[in-house]
Every structure is written in C-alpha cells, then in structure tokens.
C-alpha cells in the first residue's frame, strides 16, 4: 500500500535463463519470537545473536518493552533484561506469535494489558487460548482482537484441555510462560490432528535449553499431553538459525528455472519446518545436497507434480503450490485445512490467484488439487499475506507480466525480500536474461 492509500503493484521479474546465486538469509522469526519471550521471563539477562528484524519481531520487541522488559539493540544482536511486567497496550499486527504467545505472559503483568491488531487479525481464531487461560484463573475481556487481559502478577495454572487442531500456536503459547505459573501447566490436546508439530517441538526444545522441565507423554488413546513444571526460566544466550521457511522461495527459483541456488548456514539438525523443502524439491525432480553447512538446490529440466500431506509443514504450502502450478503433471496438496485460519484463507487465496492467471486449481476439503495449465500475466493479490506475495514472485520467474499487489507485506518476516530477490537475479540481469 502506498502512502497515498492507493494499492501498489510490483512487476515480478521474469527470467529466461537459469538462476545461479548464493542467498544469505536472516534469522528465523519463529525462533526469534520464542527466544524473546523466554528472555523476558528469564532469571537474568540474555543475548540474542542473529535475531530476525521484521515487522513481526519488531512488534514483539515493542510489546515486551511496553510491558517493562529492557531490550537494547537496533540490529540482529539484542540484549534482553527482564523486569516486572506491568500494564501496557500491545499491537499484534497480523502476527500469530504475538496474539497467541503473549496473553499467557500478560497474565504475569500487574495491571491491564490491551491487545489490538490489524483489521485482518480480527478474524484469526483466538478463543481456544483465551478460554484456556480463563480456565486457569485469568480474567480476560473479549474473545477476539481487540481484547484485554486483566493481569494480577501471577496465574494459578494447572491442567487444561483444548482443541488445538486449528493451530499449534495455541499449545506453544501456553507452554512458553507456564514455568512462571504457580502450578505450571498440563496441556491436553483433544480434537483433530495437530498441525505444525515441528513448531511445538521447537517450543519444547527451547524450553528445555532454558532448564524448564517439560514432559510429553501420550495416553493410550493417542491424545497428546505436555506438562511444564513450575520454576525459573534460566537466562540463555540464543544464537538464532537462518529462517528456513523464508529460504524456500529462493530455492524454488532454482527448481523452476533449472538453475542452482545455495543457502549458507543451513543447520545440520533443526526443528524448523522449512527444512522439509529439501525432501519436497527432490520428490519434484530437483537435486538438494548439504555440504559444509551450505544447502545447494539444482533444478531439473522438467518439474514433476507431487502428492503430499503438508499438515506438519503448512507454511510451505504457498511455495509448493507455485511449484505445482509450473510442474508438468498434476499435484495434490493434502492435510492443510487449518490454513483457512492463517493470515488469510490461504487455500481460497491460492486457488483464486493461480486460476486468475489461467491455472487449474480446485479447493478440496483439506487442500488443493493443481493441474498444470498454461499461465499468463496479470495481477496477483497478496491478501496482506507475506507467503502469498512470495508465491507470486516464484510464478513470475516463468510467467511474464505478473504484477504483485503490496509486495511490502513481505516485511512481516523478511523486509529485505525484494532486495534479496533482485540480488539473486543480478547475474542473469547482467547477461540480459531477465525481463520486467
């Protein structure tokens, strides 16, 4: 959106030659925002190195500062010093990690904490976590944004049963602050299959690094349970991994152009869902190898379709849908009904936008069926969703004339997206292999 309120469109670069580039990505949003909360509730100062600076993480920093936490640093290194939390106003923007992770921490504040956010955020589901906190002894006014947490400086905690099938963030949000509750917490999931389990595993791993006792038994019926014991959260100096989900559009560029893209500092072991992109690209015909900490993807001559359950890695769906639309055989993306509650209804958005360009996408009960069809240029709407915008950029590499609405929405998790995208294409640009 331009300053004058008019909708802006970015002409996606179209390339006629293979991409060859190395792209260095900033830190993980998911890890950064979890580390910020743990540092704010810790028993001493912490340092975050390699932190992502984006709209979502800057909003988290601003929220914690408003609550009383001292956070020093304007770049990727942040010094966090805990302090008693107090009343504040919290702007969630469109960030699920704020609207679902901070209300449990706000229970530990003395005074009212008012939460508000973007217009689109008012439609994101929140009642699951707000009702859970009410059952644990917290007084909350409202069931969706805007709402007010009436903090008393403490929370009883205890056992709660929720249906987290709509978002793994409901579980993570409860677990992150629970060590500071009087009784800790036991969270029982009762409902449909949990989406994005790697994100819950990320939360558990980070809690354990902070010396928080977390147990994760399952009962005979397969219900999932997490217990966090009450106690201190140890201060940890966090080194943030690169954001692997933000890497996926750049790796996809290699796949769709038959080129080669390398991403340095790829972790050997990680809980980030973005790591699954390696398997997906290989199944679609590309090569992917990690050597000396560098992931290199080499694209095939022809990209194959894929039948895949993306339930645990739903955030990769826009990238995979763009790849599937450019493949030479049909694809089925399953297990992702929960994406209807993300920044936008991603299933409806992807089918509408790909079909607007001449594609053949059918929305199913839990996913998308994509039959390759000749695509043409046109406007690609982002729906204020960063991953919708980057999906349009992938298609633009192969389809001339695509204009992406509000490419600036990528600032949610990757403010430098346009610069990195154009740097990746610079060698081809110099060889006159790119058209705008």
From TrEMBL:
<feature type="binding site">
    <location>
        <position position="34"/>
    </location>
    <ligand>
        <name>3-phosphoshikimate</name>
    </ligand>
</feature>
<feature type="binding site">
    <location>
        <position position="169"/>
    </location>
    <ligand>
        <name>phosphoenolpyruvate</name>
    </ligand>
</feature>
<dbReference type="GO" id="GO:0003866">
    <property type="term" value="F:3-phosphoshikimate 1-carboxyvinyltransferase activity"/>
</dbReference>
<feature type="binding site">
    <location>
        <position position="387"/>
    </location>
    <ligand>
        <name>phosphoenolpyruvate</name>
    </ligand>
</feature>
<dbReference type="GO" id="GO:0009073">
    <property type="term" value="P:aromatic amino acid family biosynthetic process"/>
</dbReference>
<dbReference type="GO" id="GO:0008652">
    <property type="term" value="P:amino acid biosynthetic process"/>
</dbReference>
<comment type="function">
    <text>Catalyzes the transfer of the enolpyruvyl moiety of phosphoenolpyruvate (PEP) to the 5-hydroxyl of shikimate-3-phosphate (S3P) to produce enolpyruvyl shikimate-3-phosphate and inorganic phosphate.</text>
</comment>
<keyword id="KW-0963">Cytoplasm</keyword>
<keyword id="KW-0057">Aromatic amino acid biosynthesis</keyword>
<dbReference type="InterPro" id="IPR023193">
    <property type="entry name" value="EPSP_synthase_CS"/>
</dbReference>
<dbReference type="GO" id="GO:0009423">
    <property type="term" value="P:chorismate biosynthetic process"/>
</dbReference>
<feature type="binding site">
    <location>
        <position position="412"/>
    </location>
    <ligand>
        <name>phosphoenolpyruvate</name>
    </ligand>
</feature>
<keyword id="KW-0028">Amino-acid biosynthesis</keyword>
<feature type="binding site">
    <location>
        <position position="196"/>
    </location>
    <ligand>
        <name>3-phosphoshikimate</name>
    </ligand>
</feature>
<dbReference type="InterPro" id="IPR006264">
    <property type="entry name" value="EPSP_synthase"/>
</dbReference>
<protein>
    <recommendedName>
        <fullName>3-phosphoshikimate 1-carboxyvinyltransferase</fullName>
        <ecNumber>2.5.1.19</ecNumber>
    </recommendedName>
</protein>
<feature type="binding site">
    <location>
        <position position="96"/>
    </location>
    <ligand>
        <name>phosphoenolpyruvate</name>
    </ligand>
</feature>
<feature type="binding site">
    <location>
        <position position="30"/>
    </location>
    <ligand>
        <name>3-phosphoshikimate</name>
    </ligand>
</feature>
<dbReference type="GO" id="GO:0005737">
    <property type="term" value="C:cytoplasm"/>
</dbReference>
<keyword id="KW-0808">Transferase</keyword>
<dbReference type="Pfam" id="PF00275">
    <property type="entry name" value="EPSP_synthase"/>
</dbReference>
<feature type="binding site">
    <location>
        <position position="168"/>
    </location>
    <ligand>
        <name>3-phosphoshikimate</name>
    </ligand>
</feature>
<comment type="subunit">
    <text>Monomer.</text>
</comment>
<feature type="binding site">
    <location>
        <position position="342"/>
    </location>
    <ligand>
        <name>3-phosphoshikimate</name>
    </ligand>
</feature>
<feature type="domain" description="Enolpyruvate transferase">
    <location>
        <begin position="17"/>
        <end position="418"/>
    </location>
</feature>
<dbReference type="InterPro" id="IPR036968">
    <property type="entry name" value="Enolpyruvate_Tfrase_sf"/>
</dbReference>
<dbReference type="InterPro" id="IPR001986">
    <property type="entry name" value="Enolpyruvate_Tfrase_dom"/>
</dbReference>
<comment type="pathway">
    <text>Metabolic intermediate biosynthesis; chorismate biosynthesis; chorismate from D-erythrose 4-phosphate and phosphoenolpyruvate: step 6/7.</text>
</comment>
<feature type="binding site">
    <location>
        <position position="169"/>
    </location>
    <ligand>
        <name>3-phosphoshikimate</name>
    </ligand>
</feature>
<dbReference type="InterPro" id="IPR013792">
    <property type="entry name" value="RNA3'P_cycl/enolpyr_Trfase_a/b"/>
</dbReference>
<feature type="binding site">
    <location>
        <position position="124"/>
    </location>
    <ligand>
        <name>phosphoenolpyruvate</name>
    </ligand>
</feature>
<feature type="binding site">
    <location>
        <position position="29"/>
    </location>
    <ligand>
        <name>3-phosphoshikimate</name>
    </ligand>
</feature>
<feature type="active site" description="Proton acceptor">
    <location>
        <position position="315"/>
    </location>
</feature>
<comment type="similarity">
    <text>Belongs to the EPSP synthase family.</text>
</comment>
<feature type="binding site">
    <location>
        <position position="315"/>
    </location>
    <ligand>
        <name>3-phosphoshikimate</name>
    </ligand>
</feature>
<feature type="binding site">
    <location>
        <position position="346"/>
    </location>
    <ligand>
        <name>phosphoenolpyruvate</name>
    </ligand>
</feature>
<feature type="binding site">
    <location>
        <position position="167"/>
    </location>
    <ligand>
        <name>3-phosphoshikimate</name>
    </ligand>
</feature>
<feature type="binding site">
    <location>
        <position position="29"/>
    </location>
    <ligand>
        <name>phosphoenolpyruvate</name>
    </ligand>
</feature>
């Amino acid at each position: 959106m331009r300053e004058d309120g008019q909708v802006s469109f970015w002409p996606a670069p179209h390339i006629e030659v293979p991409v060859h580039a190395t792209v260095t990505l900033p830190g993980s949003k998911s890890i950064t925002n979890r580390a910020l909360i743990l540092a704010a509730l810790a028993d001493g100062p912490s340092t975050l190195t390699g932190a992502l600076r984006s709209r979502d993480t800057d909003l988290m920093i601003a929220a914690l500062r408003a609550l009383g936490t001292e956070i020093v640093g304007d770049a990727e290194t942040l010094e966090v010093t805990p302090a008693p939390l107090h009343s504040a106003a919290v702007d969630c923007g469109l960030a699920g990690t704020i609207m679902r992770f901070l209300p449990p921490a706000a229970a530990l504040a003395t005074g009212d904490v008012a939460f508000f956010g973007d217009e689109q955020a008012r439609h994101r589901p929140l009642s699951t976590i707000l009702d859970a906190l009410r059952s644990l002894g917290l007084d909350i006014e409202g069931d969706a944004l805007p709402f007010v947490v009436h903090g008393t400086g403490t929370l009883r905690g205890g056992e709660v049963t929720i249906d987290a099938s709509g978002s793994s963030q409901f579980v993570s949000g409860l677990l992150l602050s629970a060590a500071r509750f009087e009784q800790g917490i036991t969270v029982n999931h009762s409902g449909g299959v949990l989406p994005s389990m790697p994100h819950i595993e990320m939360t558990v791993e980070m809690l354990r690094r902070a010396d928080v006792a977390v147990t994760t038994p399952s009962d005979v019926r397969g219900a999932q349970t997490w217990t966090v014991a009450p106690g201190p959260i140890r201060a940890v100096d966090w080194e943030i991994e690169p954001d692997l989900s933000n890497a996926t559009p750049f790796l996809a560029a290699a796949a769709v152009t038959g080129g080669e893209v390398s991403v340095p500092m790829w972790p050997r072991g990680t809980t980030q869902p973005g790591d699954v992109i390696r398997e997906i690209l290989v199944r679609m015909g590309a090569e992917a190898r990690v050597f000396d900490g560098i992931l290199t993807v080499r694209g095939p001559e022809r990209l194959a379709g894929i039948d895949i359950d993306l339930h645990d890695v739903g955030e990769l769906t826009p990238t995979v849908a763009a790849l599937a639309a450019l493949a030479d055989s049909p694809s089925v993306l399953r297990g992702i009904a929960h994406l209807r509650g993300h920044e936008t209804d991603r299933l409806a958005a992807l089918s509408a936008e790909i079909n607007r360009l001449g594609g053949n996408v059918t929305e199913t009960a839990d996913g998308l069926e994509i039959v390759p069809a000749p695509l043409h240029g046109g406007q690609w709407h982002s729906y204020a969703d960063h991953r919708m915008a980057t999906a349009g950029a992938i298609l633009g590499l192969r389809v001339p004339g695509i204009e992406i609405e509000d490419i600036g929405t990528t600032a949610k998790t990757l403010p430098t997206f346009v610069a990195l995208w154009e740097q990746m294409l610079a060698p081809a640009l110099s060889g006159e292999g790119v058209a705008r």
